[in-house]
Design goal:
heterodimer, A: 353 residues, alpha/beta, 7-stranded mixed sheet, 5-stranded mixed sheet, 20% strand, B: 251 residues, 9 helices, 7 strands
Amino acid sequence: MEKRFMTGNEAIAEAAIQAGCKHFFGYPITPQSEIPEYMSKRLPEIGGVYLQAESEVAAINMLFGAAGAGGRVMTSSSSPGISLMQEGISYLAGAELPCVIVNIMRGGPGLGGIQPSQSDYFQATKGGGHGDYHLLVLAPHTVQEAVSLTMEAFYLADKYRNPVMVLGDGYLGQMMEPVKFEKATTHGELPTKEWILTGAKDRPPRVIKSLYLDPEALEKHNLRINRKIHEMIKSEVRVETYLVEDAEIVIAAFGTVARIAKTAIKALREKGVKVGLVRPITVFPFPYKTFEEITERVGKVLVVEMNLGQMLEDVRLGVCGKAEIRFYGRTGGMVPTYDEIAIEVEKFARERR
Amino acid sequence: MQIELEKIFERPRTLRPVTTHYCPGCGHGIVARLLAETIDELGIRERTVGIAPVGCSVLLYNYLDVDMYEAAHGRAPAVATGCKRVNPKLVVFSYQGDGDFASIGTAEAVHVAARGEKITTIFINNAVYGMTGGQMAPTTLEGQKTTTSPLGRNLDQTGYPIRMAELLTTLDGAAYIARVSVNNPKSIIQAKKAIRKAFETQIRGLGYSMVEILSQCPTAWHLSPIEATKWVEEKMKPYYPLGEFKTPEEG
């Protein structure tokens, strides 16, 4: 198969189209504007619709309408824009509408900056908007993986009738790499969408809603959503372990940072430091079990993130006191270099228990 | 002896035989019926999708026998846009109150019209927030007492009531814009005509259409139903003149 040389943003957009996305609603924001730009060119070519919304608030609600009408739909934004979308994301989860939301993270809080960051981890994995729900969150660490996870995101959204987020950062979005577009063959059949709004012809009318004024009914509804979340936790956890078999210390990192950590690990291994990596691919559901298992034999876990310690909290839950944890983070758009990570590993490795 | 009587008036097919949550004397129930009649007359029930966002509007999905969304506060035009862009064969309408359309959802209201989105908005203007218990709306009149303007709306403090019909008329994407009322039988007949024209504008693919309906809210106005219909006539209509502001014929 032919390889194409593309930025992460363009590759995500093309992957979405190849996964059957025909409708995109978005609003420009750095560092992800190449996604809407690519969509505005490509979607009309395949008979799809690109629509630039008046705001992220409108974009996410257009997604709500489009998903409810049965479209395979996506939006993309970056941190401040994703914050604006949180109300709509909560409604999408409440109304059980499948869609894909791409967050190419930049530094915050507030307007922050336009350089890469991972500081929306809490927002992405713990809810973000109001109410009892979770997104399924996929965190690619290469452009190729961004392609496969974006394609998969549409399938998972339909499977669970739940919004799925592809969580990247400005580095991944702007970086160019050769990529192949291969459709996954392992996906099962999806059920027919018996709930979409097409006009009440030869059937009773349907309502897409998140409003349940009777608390008993709302509790029942929320419990049903929660069962789906538990099904995700059971079936969808994905994690990569790298050189952990003989490791005495492991790095825990996701996305771009995990990519940099791999380079640090190669350099450290050459020096004889037994270091490995645990890389959550789904940051929700989180691979707690992998951390539980790994700390049966590894005593030290170094969490590295482009934030001030967000995934750190999930690693702590997984490790559950069975290993020592250290944290190294850069923030505000600063990206840790592999030698910075290597220094932290060596420092931690020298510490006596 | 059994007498065969010709049926000359009945409940519209699209209006469900259920009790509404609207207060006695409220205009919403009349508009729901007008909508149902229009949908029946145009024969579009099986391809109509409505969007009811937050406010007294929201429970419309219990009353109309069509597919419907419940949407976030103010976002119905965006939801309508998404729906229509996926399935352009549908007839899509949003049903919004004044808090929804003229306050929290102003950006969506302006841009759906600017885009000339082929959807219809039924905008219920009763100059007050009904569902939440009678707070000041963007369309509350000068001097009007509400729970958040207890001494009467003070223009120095709160600015001026918004005339949405006139505002949207300035936008090229808007094809049909009218303001009507439902406070007496003659007005109701006019309102029905406007609603029908708005839907026809959409079906003909001519652009965005919006009907602003001055509606009585006796509960939040602390008036009897009859007094409330007079209040629409005497207080609202001078500030919110009725009429067709834009029709497709004029371009």
